[in-house]
Write a structure and sequence with these properties.
The complex is a heterodimer. Chain A has one domain: MetI-like (MetI-like fold), CATH 1.10.3720.10. In chain A, helix 10 runs parallel beside helix 11. Chain A contains twelve helices and no strands. Chain A is flat, with a radius of gyration of 23 Å. By secondary structure, chain A is mainly alpha-helical. Chain B is α/β, with parallel strands linked by helices. Chain B has a single domain, classed as Rossmann fold (3-Layer(aba) Sandwich). In chain B, a hairpin with a 2-residue loop joins strand 1 and strand 2. Chain B is globular and about 50 Å long. The two termini of chain B are 32 Å apart. Classes of the chains: A mainly alpha, B alpha/beta.
Chain lengths: 301, 253
């Protein structure tokens, strides 16, 4: 451990890998000083573990119905969170639901921000009519309420998890494009961009290698802060029956089916609701912590 | 024939409702291996001349020729291999998220030059930086060290001409002298041609064979080094500038 930390703290790294690892280590140390960010990180880590080891953590089969056991209170007959209207174990469904949630979150996180980053940096660097066209398209997407647009898309494409992801991704890229463009405008006239242009670099090399690294931190922060929104939109689509289809365990869908029993059997809707709440909170806290770690203005010293 | 020939160069910026004439009808010639200075107060257009040569500012009138050839727009890779620039502020001229290694190897990658590792290490040695600095980030270096990296970067493509935009004004006095001596050494070793901007006649006196005094975007007077040292200037503005820095020039001499 001590040899590893001295290797990481070496002020004169001897390879690209060591330089990069050293910077990551410093970021981790900064992050560790923020207790709330660590709470967020723990929640996200638990979510990851829950999804990965769902078959071992779940106490029951998430889709096995047993009508003799329906609507049991929490902590009865070995059902930690009770059972729903078909006698399915809610705890097991929440655990398996982590997989669905993570699947949606990951797919959205690798599509929308990448597309938004590309549109924003190209628009900001190119300027002129390219900027005008790309930004007006962005404005059009921003003018629609997110959930309504997603609803319209799913209605056209048909319900299902992939279409829900597509709808969420298509509605959530414009803010990233805006953030990336604003960041690009602040760096495009700096001396280090002038220097690399003077060395004969083409626009694609400048945008990809020199401007994107400067925009990445603010976009990553924005992504983690938006993850809560993505989970809620996915849950909203599930709630309306346009996202994941039954009997797949998805948190939004579970709340939707639980609302019929909200007053007599409160746990059916509350347990998945709590899961959404905790995970959304986790991503938000993590995003706040990442802001301290990644923001180039705070790491300049 | 002069290496850099500038004839009646004008640079105008469109500032919305009016036109800013940053440089008006400036002509100068720099011979190969010469060190030529541009001096004047801030806003006199001296940096703009350098930026116009590089294509970072628009040429509104006149011509610039390098080695007898008029400049093309865009400048192209051939220009990059002949002319490079060192910027004023080493805190903003190095990419904050690239290691020194990346900064120095980028020009090689752009021009498809191989043998990157050896060249980067050699470039660091040439500017008297230890090769252990190679994988550091700019924020782990001091101002003087950063400016050395910026000089090394400018020399990676082995250009003939180095445009120096107040290369030491952001550094403190002792580091300033070091950096100027480094530049003088490199010029002697590699036969470089310098076109250097400064607001400080003492720096120009230390570095340059000839100097052009500028005011309000116009050339005021051209002086050779001997004339400068002997205070044989003919215009009152050049004399004012000289008086302002005369005491430090005597220290240096």
């Amino acid at each position: 451990m001590t040899t590893l930390t001295t290797w990481l703290r070496d002020h004169s790294p001897s390879s690209r890998l060591q330089a990069r690892a050293g910077q990551a280590w410093l970021g981790w140390l900064r992050m560790r000083r923020n207790p709330l960010a660590m709470v967020g990180l723990t929640i996200v880590a638990v979510l990851l573990l829950m999804a990965a080891f769902a078959p071992w953590i779940a106490t029951h089969d998430p889709i096995a119905q047993d009508l003799s056991q329906r609507l049991l209170r929490p902590m009865t007959n070995g059902h930690l969170m009770g059972t729903d209207e078909f006698g399915r174990d809610i705890f097991s469904r929440v655990v398996y639901g982590a997989r669905v949630t993570l699947y949606i979150v990951t797919l959205v996180a690798v599509t929308a921000p990448v597309f938004g980053l590309l549109v924003g940096t190209v628009s900001g660097y190119a300027g002129g009519w390219v900027d005008q066209v790309l930004m007006r398209i962005t404005d059009i997407f921003l003018a629609f309420p997110k959930l309504i647009l997603a609803l319209a898309l799913v209605a056209v494409l048909g319900p299902g998890i992939e279409n829900a992801v597509l709808a969420i991704a298509l509605t959530s890229w414009p803010p990233y494009a805006r953030v990336a463009r604003a960041e690009t405008l602040t760096v495009r006239n700096s001396d280090y961009i002038a220097a690399v242009r003077l060395q004969g670099a083409g626009p694609s090399r400048i945008v990809w290698g020199h401007i994107m690294p400067m925009c990445l931190p603010s976009v990553i922060i924005r992504v983690t802060l938006d993850m809560a929104g993505v989970i809620l939109t996915a849950a909203g689509l599930g709630f309306l029956g346009l996202g994941v289809q039954p009997p797949m365990p998805e948190w939004g869908l579970m709340i939707s089916s639980g609302r019929k029993f909200l007053f007599e059997q409160w746990w059916v809707a509350t347990m998945p609701g709590l899961a959404i709440f905790v995970v959304s909170l986790g991503f938000n806290l993590l995003g706040d912590g990442l802001r301290d770690v990644l923001d180039p203005r705070s790491t300049a010293k | 024939m002069a290496l850099i020939e500038i004839d009646n160069l004008s640079v105008h910026f469109d500032a919305g409702d009016r036109i800013v004439k940053a440089v008006q009808d400036v002509s100068l010639q720099v011979a190969a291996r010469e060190s030529y200075g541009l001096v004047g107060e801030s806003g006199s257009g001296k940096s703009t001349i350098l930026r116009a040569i590089c294509g970072l500012a628009p040429i509104s009138g006149g011509t610039v020729r390098i080695g007898g050839e008029p400049l093309k727009t865009p400048r192209g890779k051939g220009f990059s291999a002949r002319v490079q620039m060192v910027f004023q502020d080493p805190y903003s001229s190095l990419h904050p998220r690239h290691t020194i290694d990346r900064t120095l190897s980028e020009p090689l990658a752009i021009h498809g030059v191989g043998n990157t590792d050896a060249r980067v290490v050699q470039a660091l040695r040439d500017v008297a930086l230890d090769p252990t600095f190679r994988f550091r980030f700019p924020h782990q270096l001091s101002g003087g060290q950063r400016q050395r990296v910026a000089i090394a970067r400018a020399l990676m493509l082995q250009p003939e001409i180095l445009l120096l935009d107040e290369p030491t004004s952001a550094l403190d006095a002792s580091v300033q002298a070091e950096t100027l001596n480094l530049l003088n050494r490199l010029r002697a070793e590699r036969g470089l041609t310098f076109l250097m901007v400064s607001h400080d006649l003492a720096v120009i006196d230390h570095m340059c064979d000839r100097v052009l005094v500028m005011q309000h975007g116009r050339a005021v007077e051209e002086l050779a080094r001997d004339d400068l040292a002997a205070a044989r200037m003919t215009t009152s503005y050049a004399r004012t500038l000289f008086d302002a820095s005369a005491d430090r020039m005597l220290d240096g001499a």
